[in-house]
Amino acid sequence: MQISPHIGSQLVDLCSALLLLTCFAIVAQRRLSACVDLFALQSAFLALTAALVAFLTGNHHIYIAAALTGVIKVIIIPRVLKKVIERLNVKRELVMNVNVPAGLLICGALVMLAFFITQPIIPLGFLLTRDSLAIALAIVLIGFFTMIARQKAVTQLVGFLVMENGLFLGATAATYGMPLIVELGVFFDVLIAALIAGIYTNRLQDAFDSVDTTHLTVLKE
Amino acid sequence: MYILLIALILCHGLGLVLPFCVPRKPQTQGIVGSVCACAASLIGITLGLSGLVAPEPVTAIVASPIPLLAFAVRLDPLASFFVLTISLAGLAASFYAMGYLKEFHGRVSVAALAALTNGFLLSMMLVVIADNGFFFLIAWELMSLASYFLVVTEHEKADVRYAGFFYLVMTHVGTAFVILTYLILFQSAGSFSFEAFRHPEQALPDGMRTLVFLAALIGFGTKAGIVPLHVWLPYAHPAAPSHISALMSGVMIKTAIYALIRVYFDFLGGQFPWWWGFLVLLVGTLSAILGVMYALMEHDLKRLLAFHSVENIGIILLGIGAGMIFQTYGLKEFAALGLLAGLYHTINHAMFKALLFLGAGSLVYATHTRNMEEYGGLLRRMPWTGLFFLIGAVSISALPPTNGFVSEWLVFQTLFLSFQFPDLFLKLMLPIAAAILALTGVLALACFAKAFGISFLALPRSAHARHAEEVPTSMRIGMAIPALLCVGLGLAPMIVVPLLDRITAPLTGVSISDKVLALDGWALAPVNMEFSSVSPPMLAAMLILGGLLGLTLAFLFGGRMVKRYYKTWGCGINLSPRMEYTATGFVQPIKRVFSTIYQPTIKLETEFLQESRYFAKQRKFEFHIEPVFEKYLYNPVVHIFMRIADRLRILQAGSLHLYLAYIFVTLVVLLLFAV
Which ipTM did the prediction report? Predict the structure, then answer.
């Protein structure tokens, strides 16, 4: 089956836009378990995008990356995070460094910034995924912003994973994915990072009776 | 030679690994490490001696994948001499360590201590045989780090941590200047190999040469402990375990002397303006006199010895500085004499300072204190330690027939030769330096009269000293090795001088051994017999004969010998240790005379009886001298840094979010700039 490049490009853009949309949902969501669910959804969209790119370009190794995304980011990591949340008995994020409306506005500004920055680069590209680059950058920035805006370790972890998703999308968009060996390494890293952060969150709970990372300031001399 | 070199590195390598492999008994770990170090030192002695007499320098090179770095070694006479010195001190210290490490059982990891000692010795060895600037810097840094970790062996004590930190900061400031030196040389040479430094592609301009001179003097001077960069020495050397103090004070600071000679006479080709030599001479004079003066006021035996290292580095630099001035004026024979005197004093100081630090270690081992006021009467309890310490004290005070006398005499002769200069200023300055050196010698004698007398003679002043016992055999052997060498090096200049001549001849271009030695080597006469000459073996013979003569006369005319055992007469009062001279009291006159330099603070509080002011109930005496350099030179600099750091601390709030925000803002700003 052949799809015209134009429609293919539109489909990729659509999937990327869905990714971005879930980002906003994560920023707006206070419930921790819902945040994790949204992350799983975003990863599912990412896997879909990757599979789409693999289908459109015929680069079969991207299928493997897509499958790994499906397994690790949609199933394993959300499970680990759910377990952590269950054990901690923390359901909601009550206090935020930046409240939700202001956060959404800032995220809007970040998306504009991302498009503004990539504007001179995108016309130079010739891949059908080139428009996704701006979205990928926006996702990275929003993920980063989530890490700053939220106080609970779990949501910071989600922010980190969102950033990683953005990077993956960026890599796919700019070069049709990195070499397979690099992708595998990155997946492994993310998995380990999530596990470590899970343990770290547990320790934080034990030490401070809370997963609020602002408590870490007392570690300063 | 290559086999020796490989064996040396292998032995130290084994010493690094084996202590961790043997069963977890500190005794075995310590002995395994020390035996490795002993074996390596014996190989090193052979290597050094054969390198000294070898007709051509031995070189070896192992290429490395890193650009500019090559593991190149070269054993020319200069390097071999320092290999020999390091190995001799290393042998003494490792023998000593076998017994001494018991002091640390159960408190610190003996395996780590033994392994680090091996690493320290190896890194010093690599510093002096390196033939590549990059390799040299790596070895230099390894040496600094190994010695740092050894200094903080007893890291549970706050003052040891302070000493370690002080040392680490100072040594890295020095290293920065050392790197600067090598970078400038590299720029003109186009390569880091020492051969390229010697024959650069384009010659260094004069300004750059001056920069190399100054950077090397500051960089290596920090390690050597020249005034005013000496402040770390009295902290770091006493804090380390004693056999490490012996190595640091005896040989580590000498690697800086090696590097100075290497840079000035080898890389810069011995071509320099007169003020370079004069500056070295000035620094040497200041170090010598101030070192001994501060040493006099110390009652902590190891701190006292550390200050004496400053003094002796000063004496070595006096010889080298005078040699440099002679070199400028083309008086090559005298230049060689100055260098020779400096190098002779280098090995001599390595021996007697190692001996004294090992002796001090034995005292600490037996009494568990470093405070001299708590010693006393130890000669009867520790006769061997006393004998060895006395030999060391006689050596460092430059009395015949020991080695200190010969080398200091040679330094004096070099300084007296200044009448050869065309310049009136220098004609005046060198004799003044000689006069100050004479004062230094006298004060050193006073200092060791105090150190030996207060520690070993009279009655014990504390329970520690009363219960002291002689140290184990391995420690005594460790002290006997440098003690024998102290006497041997003093009696046999006819062997030492020709060997040293092999070092100075290529550096200055003339061989002087037959000119320095007269009467088939039995006398030293730097210029000719009429000007000045001395024969150390003859002096020793005369001392012995004089002593025998006195005994004979006493035996002949002294009447019948009657032995009576009774307490020392004390005018009817029972003698108590409180009547003895204290170390503080001993140096009181000198403190008065030099009060401008010491700026002492004396506090005397007397509490009188209520009935009459003629009877004192209690007296409290306190005195301390002003650490001038720390107060006026170092503290202001430290304050500036602390203030800047305080300002910068606002950034470091400890909040994870804030740190993330820093990164985020930086990222966004950079992205905006990129567009």
Answer: 0.81
